[in-house]
Specification:
mainly beta; Immunoglobulin-like; six-stranded mixed sheet; four-stranded antiparallel sheet; globular
Length: 258
């Protein structure tokens, strides 16, 4: 969605103490200080043809998502991507060194998945009752400069195997009847050696089976489909035209050579 620019909130009183905290921590890990390291929002990807580009724009973001588990295939990288916009609010260095000691080098993300809202049926709840599919870490790299520097990333935030378990459990129809909270934290280490974990970022995703499928026809289609879906991941957020091949649903639909 398009949102008007948000006024940056005043620095908390503890901000003036950050350099002292960093000095005291040295190379050891410190407790997380709210506001130092944040995921601001879920960026809306810029889609052009088959290209998926993640911008760095705090004013354009998505507040919730939709996952269609009927579209997810075993060869997908993930059932749902979140595109975190990460901000490093550690103070900028006052030294003349070319290396920013408070720049955070990302190592990945921690992801936790849990149903929210009305309790789901027991068969669906059992899918989320612990295990590596609902609590895990993924790798990512990149540097986030201090002093309010920002970086966009891509987090595989819903495993394919988890979506397949939901399909097997049954009870999820065209109308979204299950909402999950994706809790994501960025992980990294400053150039000065301090381990960092961002504030938790909560992102709700509605889950359905078939709600994003616009049309279905035998593969291949004679012409390019009208609904191309989300180039980053066909199973999320946008309607897509599909086709069937050997009984399998293929989204986006295959098109016959012209």
């Amino acid at each position: 969605m398009n949102a008007s620019p948000t006024l940056r909130r005043p620095l908390p009183l503890g901000a003036v103490l950050w350099p002292l905290v960093l000095t005291a921590c040295g190379l050891a890990a410190c407790g997380r200080v709210p506001g130092q390291f944040e995921i601001l929002n879920d960026q809306v990807p810029e889609i052009s043809g088959t290209t998926c580009t993640i911008p760095v724009d705090p004013t354009v973001y998505q507040g919730e998502g939709t996952l269609d588990i009927s579209i997810v295939r075993s060869d997908f990288h993930t059932a749902y991507f979140v595109f975190p916009l990460i901000e490093n609010n550690l103070p900028s260095s006052s030294s003349n060194s070319s290396i920013d000691p408070n720049e955070i080098q990302l190592s990945g993300f921690q992801v936790d998945i849990a149903p929210i809202g009305a309790p789901p049926p027991s068969a669906i709840q059992a899918v989320f009752d612990g295990g590596p599919l609902v609590h895990y870490q993924i790798s990512w790299s990149g540097g986030v400069p201090s002093g309010g520097g920002q970086l966009s990333a891509q987090a595989a935030a819903f495993p394919v195997a988890l979506a397949q378990k939901l399909v097997a459990a049954g009870g999820i129809g065209t109308d979204p009847s299950l909402t999950v909270d994706l809790t994501i934290q960025a992980l990294g280490t400053t150039n000065g050696g301090m381990h960092m974990q961002s504030d938790p970022f909560h992102f709700p995703v509605q889950i359905c089976s078939g709600c994003l499928v616009a049309t279905v026809a035998p593969c291949p289609l004679a012409a390019a489909p009208a609904h191309l879906g989300n180039t980053c991941n066909a199973a999320q957020d946008l309607r897509v035209d599909c086709c069937t091949e050997d009984g399998a649903l293929i989204c986006p639909a295959k098109v016959a050579p012209q």
